[in-house]
Amino acid sequence: MGAFEWIRLIAGCAFLVSGLVIFFTEIFGVFHYDYVLNRMHATAMGDTLGIASCMVGLIIFSGLNFTSLKLLLIVIFLWFASPVSSHVLARLEVATNENLTGHCKVYTDLKALEEELSSEMSGQEENESGGTKS
Known about the structure:
By secondary structure, the chain is mostly helical. It has 4 helices and no strands. The longest helix is centred in the middle third of the chain and has 31 residues.
């Protein structure tokens, strides 16, 4: 085997292994978190990055041919489909969950949100300066 084949083998294996590590991290996130939106975030990020990494590894193994083009089109399709579908499911969960306030804060008043954020920012600035503001 020449040097080019070794480089292809190492690069392809690196992408496949990194994709598998991402998938195992995704599985940990699914079983670790309790709330459905946290689980969905872990799966959506893991699917998009993990599948893309594995497919790039397969493209490297395959070389430049029609199969590589098909794999690249699958990666592009999944980059668009996975985030959109998980966003739609998350909006459905937020719209239909009657117990949403038990999991997170729901803001209906934009002014109250702005006041809370400004008070948090001023509190952080006070902590960073080491004292109170004049």
